[in-house]
Amino acid sequence: MFIKELALWVCCLSGIVACVSAPPDRYVRQITPERVLQEKLEQQWARVNAEEGVRQQFNRAMKFRTQVCQRCHGTDGHSRNGRCPNLAGQNPAYLVQQLQHFSEGQRQDFQMQSIVKKMTDADKVAVAIYFSRMSPYPAITERGDGAAQGEVIFHIKCAQCHGKRGQGQYNYPRLAGQLPSYIRMTLHEFRKLNSRRRITIMRAIASTLSEAEIKALAAYISTME
User: The domain spanning residue 171 has which CATH number?
Assistant: First the structure.
């Protein structure tokens, strides 16, 4: 009797181990479109940086293919419109993520969604790489009123995600050098309950900022390199 019970127990234990070591296919195959794009980005980034000839060919092709982007974000990736962000030097992982969010409707903007819906995965990756390789520079070269206070606020509330120099990391964007008007507009947008930007952590942070602190942050971030 004891041997039969032991055999039954071993059989049950084997079944449990099998379940733990070999999860169902539905979990194994659960790869998001965003993750697929990130992998394609890494592969294409390596190709573009492999040799000078490839880079030159890529840049020539993308200069023509991104003309619709340049109207708002500038031919050099620096916007002349305070409602549009600079893309030069932007974190490519963030750029490709946001293009995917526009295509899925997670991020709302009629013009951007109209453009992105025509883009393939390869297009999104290429655009992200092209602008991220452009040289960034500060929107404002001299510190104005409030910049010193903005620096303190930045290191307390922003640096952990966006990096100490504001250059972006992981899937977080580069903030350094953005136009002050764009920074102010974006922080105000995050504060809205019905915001088009559905990022809970940013809503929580922006809601704690006073108008004076928002202006100070914008003054500092715009001078960052």
Answer: 1.10.760.10
134: left (phi over 0), alpha (psi -120 to 50) or beta: beta
If one counts the domains in the chain, the total is 2
Residue 188: count other Cβ atoms within 10 Å of its Cβ. Answer: 14
User: Using CA atoms, how far apart are residues 95 and 171, in angstroms rounded to an integer?
Assistant: 8
C-alpha to C-alpha distance for 193 and 225, rounded to whole angstroms: 32
Q: Tokens 């010193």 correspond to what residue?
A: 148
Q: Is the pTM of this model over 0.70?
A: yes
112-130, pLDDT tens digit by residue? 999 999 999 999 999 999 9
Residue 30 — pLDDT band, cuts 50, 70, 90?
low
Tokens at 200, concatenated: 């809970």
Range of the domain at 195: 147-221
